[in-house]
């Protein structure tokens, strides 16, 4: 699947309607972002079941601010509406594939139970 642009208007739908969403926070002026883009695009073609989104931090400053993006590129991976991975910096294709594999292996039932427990402990 090719990458898709994600905006503040499309973000919630992307996260809520898809099992796994990977988001690349980037900007046109960012050299490392431009170097990472073809790697990201290439890996996206191998995973039709995953949404590979791109958020332009210049035009989507509110979204970038919400996620406290301080360095670009930053990659975030959501699964079942939970952020499982967030890391600034470039990756090569093998590293990105490795992270995707690890995200797929996570038992989300346990993750959701842990979140529910933390939320109940706070009340």
General description of the model:
It is a single chain. This protein has helices at residues 11-16, 31-44, 61-66, 93-105, 108-121; strands at residues 4-5, 20-26, 50-56, 74-79, 82-88. It is an alpha/beta fold and 123 residues long. The protein has a single domain (4-121), classed as 3-Layer(aba) Sandwich (Glutaredoxin). The protein has a 5-stranded mixed sheet. A hairpin with a 2-residue loop joins β4 (74-79) and β5 (82-88). The chain is globular. The protein starts with a strand and ends with a helix.
| Main beta-sheet annotation | 5 strands, mixed
Mean of all residue-level pLDDT scores = 94
CATH topology: Glutaredoxin
Number of helices: 5
Order of helices and strands: EHEHEHEEHH
- What is the assembly state of the chains in this entry? single chain
Structural class category:
alpha/beta
| Coarse shape | globular
Which residues form runs of ≥5 with pLDDT under 50? none
Instruction: Note the beta-strand portion.
Output: 15-25%
Q: What is the rounded Rg? A: 15 Å
Number of strands: 5
What is the helix content? 40-55%
Strand order of the largest sheet: 1-3-2-4-5
CATH architecture: 3-Layer(aba) Sandwich
Distance between the termini: 42 Å
CATH homologous superfamily descriptor: Glutaredoxin
**Class, according to the CATH hierarchy?**
Alpha Beta
How many domains in all?
1
